[in-house]
Amino acid sequence: MWIEQHFQVKYSERGTRELLYRLGFSLSRPTYSLAKADPEQQEALC
């Protein structure tokens, strides 16, 4: 996990969610996908 790799602290999935919530973050999932999106350009951005 990214947190463990960068900070040498291990959190469970639930602990990570609770930590992020306490820091003011919230979970949001995409509700749609762009029909005209170019998959190759999307890969290049990652």
Automatic annotation (TrEMBL):
InterPro entries the UniProt entry points to: Winged_HTH_dom
Record domain Winged helix-turn helix: where: 2-44
Highest taxon listed in the record's lineage: Bacteria
Protein name per the record: Winged helix-turn-helix domain-containing protein
Species this chain originates from: Paenibacillus arenilitoris
